[in-house]
Amino acid sequence: MLFRQSLFQSVVERLSDEDIDPTAKESPAVSHRIHGMPGNYLADSLTTEPQEATRLQQAYLFLMEDGPLEEPAAPAPPQAQAPVTPAHLVRLSLEEIAEDLGIAPTDDRERLAERRRQFAKLNHPDRIHADFRERATKRMKIANLLIDEAIRRLP
């Protein structure tokens, strides 16, 4: 470090002394090639004959244990079976639905609401096959009517 110079100034001066002529360096020649790749991969595929590619593929398949994979057979279409009517959907009379609900004279509002939820869990039309939704809807209408009537009669 020279007297009366900062460390930075002395480093700049030393670097400028080392690099006397910055234009004297040779600039690299501009090339259209990519310098990072060791070879041309496209040229091999263009010069390979189709017979050569077939021979290479056959040699590869020969080394495989099972050989080439075969196309899987299309699955058989599922046979449409007629849905079986659930036993509880056959019971459509007012008395049968009241029996299924199990409404007792001692039930309060909370117990009646719980019975409605339990009945809907088993009989709601959205949970039933499309062929039986009409019956399920009828059962739900009657059950809601019976529960609403029981709630009206509460003190």
Automatic annotation (TrEMBL):
InterPro entries tied to this protein: J_dom_sf
The name this protein goes by in its record: J domain-containing protein
Species annotation: Ciceribacter sichuanensis
Organism placement in taxonomy: Bacteria, Pseudomonadati, Pseudomonadota, Alphaproteobacteria, Hyphomicrobiales
